[in-house]
Design goal:
With about 375 residues, the chain is of the alpha+beta class. The chain is about 55% helix and about 10% strand. The protein is elongated and about 85 Å long. It starts with 20 loop residues before the first helix and ends with a helix.
């Protein structure tokens, strides 16, 4: 089962105070993967007419059969490759096939009903076990959500087993995205103190820009991460989400810069935590180590402007300052997208081209900030 060397299953407790954390995590992940496999098969067998006890025993025996085969292979050839990987679809398929054989041989449950669900169960168990493999500890909300997946899958299989022909779609975990989404939703429910967010996406107000909370900080919209599209004036709301999150915005062919009426696609904007505005300026704040004050100075904007709250399209703001901020935002995006387009022309992916162009702009901004600091220091020394 690919457990750490030296683990004694009869003695080792993953939750013992003196347990090695890495070893404990490895053992616990495998334990959950084994139980996911067993309970999914057991639920299917029970749903096909067996008692819960008989169904569970059959499922355990099916796993044990394959483990036994692996053990015998090792005895015959100590160098044999015999790891039973519960994230491997083929391994789950082998166990499920053995379960189907046992159902047919023993008469525990209905073989035809079980076989109708077998392929879907294999897909679902494989997806869940692969997701469990992402656990990084034993106690965080994310890990608790991962370890709860087997219970959710069990309920899905039970629902499908009532009528496999009609209800097979109840096993939603046969789709990997559904598993990922369930993890995010469960982890979010465990956090408590959920937060409602609102804000505006500005480079000209952007209509139909995709705004999301990047829970895992990978820069991508993943299943389960809260998201929405902006209104015509660039505003958006996201309710009942994890607290202390920043905004990430992705534009596409649906996104319209309402200040020009033009489509603005393939641009990524970000904002720091607590910001009510997402713009080219807030993106620079996130991607550089500059303070708000230093960024305003580097870009030659009026002093006192806070890029995280200043919306040039709100009627109450100073119109001279609003014009200055909006011109600068357009110039930033025009510069980055022009460089990005050139890079795309040499057969580089659009997202990579944008990142390279943005990085070049960031380096220039940081360099200018350093030069300004150096100039101030020289003036002070003089």
């Amino acid at each position: 089962m690919d457990l750490p060397e030296g683990v004694d299953p009869t003695q080792f407790s993953a939750f013992s105070e003196d347990a090695d954390p890495d070893m404990a995590l490895a053992v616990e992940k495998v334990a959950h993967q084994v139980m996911t496999t067993v309970t999914a098969i057991s639920s299917a067998v029970e749903g096909s007419g067996a008692s819960s006890e008989d169904a569970f025993l059959l499922a355990v025996a099916s796993v044990a059969d394959i483990v036994q085969e692996k053990g015998e292979a090792v005895r015959e050839n100590p160098n044999a490759e015999v790891v039973l990987d519960f994230t491997d679809t083929s391994a789950i398929e082998t166990i499920t096939t053995r379960a189907a054989e046992r159902v047919e041989e023993s008469g525990v449950g209905d073989a035809d009903s079980f076989k109708q669900m077998a392929t879907t169960i294999v897909e679902a168990v494989s997806n869940v076990n692969n997701e469990i493999n992402n656990a990084e500890d034993l106690s965080s909300d994310d890990s608790k959500a991962l370890f709860s997946l087997s219970s959710q899958l069990k309920e899905q299989v039970k629902a499908a087993a009532e009528d496999p022909e009609a209800n097979l779609d109840a096993i939603t975990f046969s789709q990997a995205d559904a598993v990922s989404e369930a993890v995010v939703e469960k982890a979010t429910s465990l956090v408590g103190n959920l937060t409602d967010y609102s804000g505006s996406v500005i480079k000209g107000p952007l209509e139909d820009a995709l705004v999301f909370l990047d829970y895992n900080s990978d820069g991508l919209l993943n299943p389960g991460e809260p998201n929405t599209r902006t209104d015509e004036d660039g505003t958006f709301t996201i309710n009942s989400a994890r607290p202390d999150m920043s905004f990430t915005v992705i534009t596409d062919e649906q996104t319209v810069d309402t200040s020009s009426g033009q489509i603005l696609a393939d641009v990524t904007l970000k904002s720091p935590v607590g910001s009510s505005v997402v713009s080219p300026l807030t993106t620079l704040l996130v991607e550089t180590d500059l303070s708000k004050e230093k960024l305003v100075e580097v870009l030659g904007l009026p002093s006192g402007i806070d890029p995280t709250t200043f919306n040039p399209f709100v009627s109450s703001v100073d119109q001279t300052e609003a014009l200055s901020v909006e011109i600068t935002s357009h110039q930033i995006i025009a510069t980055i997208t022009a460089i990005s387009t050139v890079i795309e022309g040499i057969d580089i992916a659009t997202n990579v081209a944008f990142e390279v162009a943005l990085e070049a702009f960031l380096k220039l901004s940081k360099l200018k900030a350093k030069m300004m600091n150096y100039s101030l220091l020289r003036n002070y020394q003089i």
